Amino acid sequence: VRLVESGGGLVQPGGSLRLACAGSGLFFRRYEVSWYRQAPGNEREWVASISRGDGASNYVDSVKGRFTMSRDDHNNLIYLQMNNLQPEDTAVYFCNARGHSDYWGQGTQVTVSL
């Protein structure tokens, strides 16, 4: 099983990025899939999830209305569309797939700065 994130980068406040996570060796639709982030000196923080069953999405309060998580079952990808990014969103973002086992990607850096 391998998860690979992409799409991170440097963006100015108010800007947007779309992160992607490609999965191999598993089907995302069979797992609860999530995005987490970790800023320097902080613990890893849950950001958003899509449930395995009904595909409902949930978000941490600090990103509600700005971030949208989606799942592409045909291509086995998950996305995190991030709009109106702020400096406090700066972190390494990780995708996660949780079922009988727990799988993580290596992370992609998002930096929001002038």
Structure commentary:
The radius of gyration is 13 Å and the shape is globular. By secondary structure, the protein is mainly β. The protein is built from no helices and eleven strands. The mean pLDDT is 96. It has strands spanning 2-6, 9-11, 17-24, 32-38, 45-50, 57-59, 67-72, 77-82, 91-98, 102-104, 108-112. Strands 2, 4, 5, 6, 9, 10 and 11 form a seven-stranded mixed beta sheet that branches.
Proportion of residues in β-strands: over 45%
Question: What order do the SSEs take from the amino end to the carboxyl end, as H and E?
Answer: EEEEEEEEEEE
Q: Count the E strands.
A: 11
Cα-to-Cα separation, first versus last residue: 37 Å
Class computed from helices, strands and strand pairing: mainly beta
Salient structural properties:
114 residues, mainly beta, seven-stranded mixed beta sheet, four-stranded antiparallel beta sheet, 11 strands, 0% helix, 53% strand
